[in-house]
Design goal:
This protein is mainly α and about 400 residues long. The chain is about 80% helix and about 0% strand. Helix 15 packs across helix 16.
Length: about 400
């Protein structure tokens, strides 16, 4: 494609930093307004489920968009589509802060899911485009850890934005962040696609078929979605439990979500440090610990039920799923390097759809309002992952 600015060799480090700054964008979009959810419900005169739907709609649209964005960035490149998506994302945030109509907020959250899909898929593919071998494996694993910085910082920032301003301040913050990234991307980044692949629906479906025949890859998508969905269970219900049931402030809810983000990041660091360990045994061990801690969380609730006990058990559960996610998500992203964009799209898309459907369904059915309730939600997610790891993969390995 002529006339497209290519990434300059001298800007490789700067472009890598920009990519790492954009990777957490999806986490910022989901987590920064979590402490504001109860206040949004009051201000917009909506139910708890209606506000939770704003998060699920983003996750679903973000996931669905990646099924096509991966192929599009392989065909038309990463750079221009990233710039355009950032510009549209900025506008969508300004629309959200200017309306009190929940339908418009729903629509803009869908737009944000689509634009985030283009941005994040392009940046995941960037690392496969620019780096090779052990260096690529290092950056793909590091990428998951960097992404986990958003769940750490976003609710902490969002809690204070809600405390001193209002829920709209969260979306102003997202608009400003995206504007800064747009300028940096324009100045320092450039096109990195090694070879443009013609956009053909038949070819895309053929490539999807190749990937979906790989049982380890498919199980990885399911496991990654369930692990991230486990954290979303806390994201969907945690603020309502802490602020409504326990009568704490939005700042405390923000700090609590920050604590869960630290757990996810710790799991990511442990996962990266254990890359040299046998893959499936460490995944299965982490899942077993996850289930054991969840059972302890439920049984202890009859004797001990307060903010500290809730966060104590949830922390270790999030460490376990963070470890599993880091290892399996990195594996899926690097599984088919010859079609990095498409692989990134299918991996991210499937993960977020599974996350959205599983977490919203479990929370919607169980309506967790206590430590015991959120423990049962965690247990459902943990046993689903256990079934995949112990039965589906076992059958696959026996056939090899």
């Amino acid at each position: 494609m002529t006339g497209v600015k290519r990434l300059a060799t001298g800007n490789k480090k700067a472009a890598t930093i920009i990519a790492f700054l954009l990777i957490p964008l999806s986490g910022l979009i989901t987590d920064i307004y979590i402490p504001s959810m109860p206040h949004m419900a009051q201000d917009l005169h909506q139910s708890q489920a209606s506000i939770q739907l704003t998060l699920s709609l983003f996750l679903i649209s973000y996931g669905l968009s990646q099924f096509i964005t991966g192929s599009l960035i392989d065909s038309f490149g990463r750079f221009r589509l990233t710039l355009f998506s950032l510009a549209v994302f900025i506008i969508s945030n300004l629309v959200i802060v200017s309306t009190h109509q929940i339908e418009w907020i729903y629509a803009m959250r869908v737009v944000q899911g689509i634009t985030a899909g283009f941005i994040i898929v392009a940046k995941r593919a960037f690392f496969v485009d620019v780096y090779e071998g052990a260096e690529r494996k290092h950056y793909l694993s590091l990428m998951s850890i960097v992404w986990s910085a958003a769940p750490v910082m976003a609710p902490f920032i969002g809690g204070y934005l809600q405390q001193f301003f209002n829920w709209q301040a969260n979306f102003y913050m997202l608009a400003v962040y995206a504007a800064v990234m747009l300028v940096l991307e324009w100045v320092f980044a450039g096109e990195t696609v090694p070879e443009y692949r013609p956009f053909r629906l038949s070819a895309m479906l053929r490539d999807y078929k190749i990937m979906l025949k790989d049982r380890m890859f498919v199980c990885g998508l399911l496991i990654s979605g369930l692990c991230y969905g486990t954290t979303m269970v806390f994201g969907l219900s945690g603020a309502f439990i802490i602020e409504h049931e326990m009568q704490y402030s939005s700042v405390v809810a923000g700090y609590s979500a920050l604590f869960m983000g630290l757990a996810w990041m710790a799991g990511g660091f442990i996962g990266k440090a254990s890359l040299h360990k046998a893959f499936l045994p460490k995944i299965r061990l982490s899942n077993a610990i996850q289930i054991a801690v969840t059972v302890a969380m439920i049984t202890s609730a009859f004797l001990l039920h307060n903010l500290y006990s809730l966060l104590f058990f949830a922390f270790f559960i999030h460490v376990c799923v963070g470890l599993i996610f880091n290892n399996y998500f990195a594996y899926c992203l690097g599984a088919f390097p010859q079609m990095a964009g498409l692989t990134s799209g299918l991996t991210g898309g499937s993960t977020y759809i599974i996350t959205a459907v599983a977490s919203y369904t479990v929370v919607g059915v169980l309506h967790p309002r206590s430590q015991e309730g959120i423990g049962y939600a965690y247990l459902v997610m943990g046993f689903l992952a256990f079934f995949i790891l112990q039965f589906l993969l076992k059958r696959h390995l026996e056939r090899r």
